[in-house]
Specification:
The protein is mainly α. The protein has two domains: about 15-60, Homeodomain-like (Arc Repressor Mutant, subunit A), CATH 1.10.10.60; about 70-200, Orthogonal Bundle (Tetracycline Repressor, domain 2). Helix content is about 70%, strand content about 0%. It has helices at about 15-35, 40-50, 55-60, 65-85, 90-110, 110-120, 125-150, 155-180, 185-200.
Length: about 210
């Protein structure tokens, strides 16, 4: 047997930093969703991604940092998709309903990822809790932008207050719905829209 005939191990190509970061985010998010924040370690992320611990620490420094990065990416994708869903609807009330339907569809079809977004505040402390709060405020700001387009004559403070209220109402209705599987998504959307229109009805342009 010649030297040339001996099988050589495949060359393992080095992944670019951006691709590695995305891969680690995918792995970390899956683990956090499946196991919960407290049950996941940086070692778990490294093993699941088939990399060494230093690679994970180089990208995230801490488990909390990995968690924040996961939540940030989910929020960014969610906010973009929410805006697209609202833009496809015509009329202020229909846009409100479209946004609500999109929000509650995430509860219905991707419950674990929804829980990752909307029940994560209690797992972090200190600067990481502040970062998470900042992400949630950015999400609320995206709601306020949609409200401003739907009710341009409403006072700024009312729009800001309503954005916070909409986020809170949606979150609590989502949790309530998880305990009431007998209700349909359309039921929950109807409740959400009715609750909000009672507060903003006089300012909404119904076309």
């Amino acid at each position: 047997m010649t030297t040339d005939s001996v099988a050589k191990p495949p060359v393992r190509r080095r992944m670019s930093s951006s691709r590695r970061y995305s891969q680690l985010l995918d792995v970390a998010e899956r683990l956090f969703v499946e196991q919960g924040f407290g049950s996941v370690s940086m070692d778990d992320i490294a093993r699941a991604a088939d990399v060494t611990r230093p690679v994970v620490y180089n990208h995230f420094q801490t488990k909390e940092g990995a968690y924040i990065a996961c939540v940030k990416r989910v929020y960014e994708r969610y906010n973009d998709a929410l805006g697209a869903a609202v833009d496809r609807a015509e009329g202020a009330v229909d846009r409100l309903r479209a946004g609500a339907d999109f929000f509650f569809s995430t509860v219905e079809v991707d419950r674990d990822r929804w829980v990752l977004l909307f029940t994560s505040a209690s797992v972090l402390r200190g600067e990481y809790a502040s970062e998470l709060a900042s992400l949630r405020l950015q999400h609320i700001e995206s709601i306020i932008v949609l409200l401003r387009a739907a009710a341009p004559g409403a006072p700024a403070d009312l729009l800001e207050a309503s954005g916070h209220a909409m986020s809170g109402v949606g979150e609590r209705l989502g949790h309530w719905w998880l305990s009431r599987p007998d209700l349909s998504r359309s039921d929950i959307v109807d409740y959400y829209v009715k609750i909000l229109l009672d507060g903003l009805g006089r300012w909404v342009e119904t076309d």
